[in-house]
Amino acid sequence: MLVLSRKKNESIVINNDIVITIVEIRGDKVRLGIVAPKDVPVHREEVYDAIHGQKTAAAPNPGPVGPS
């Protein structure tokens, strides 16, 4: 898992066509704005789980990303 720090109104870009922007930070809640192509489904995890009829298991920590 890649972990990034961002402030309000800062963004990250994924694959040149998905932009995730921090819209608001209030207490322990963060609001995200997501711009993605129409053919890329974007769901909250609980909605994704309901659609696929399963609970997503917590992924084990795979360790550092990138070459060693």
UniProtKB/TrEMBL annotation:
Top-level division of the source organism's lineage: Bacteria
Signal peptide extent: none
UniProt record, GO biological process: bacterial-type flagellum organization; mRNA catabolic process; negative regulation of translational initiation; regulation of bacterial-type flagellum assembly; regulation of carbohydrate metabolic process
Keywords attached to this entry: Bacterial flagellum biogenesis, Cytoplasm, Repressor, RNA-binding, Translation regulation
Keyword Protein biosynthesis set for record: no
Gene3D superfamilies the UniProt entry points to: Translational regulator CsrA (2.60.40.4380)
Subcellular location: Cytoplasm
GO cellular component terms listed in the entry, alphabetical order: cytosol
Assigned protein family: Belongs to the CsrA/RsmA family.
Subunit structure: Homodimer; the beta-strands of each monomer intercalate to form a hydrophobic core, while the alpha-helices form wings that extend away from the core.
Described purpose of this protein according to its UniProt entry: A translational regulator that binds mRNA to regulate translation initiation and/or mRNA stability. Usually binds in the 5'-UTR at or near the Shine-Dalgarno sequence preventing ribosome-binding, thus repressing translation. Its main target seems to be the major flagellin gene, while its function is anatagonized by FliW.
The name this protein goes by in its record: Translational regulator CsrA
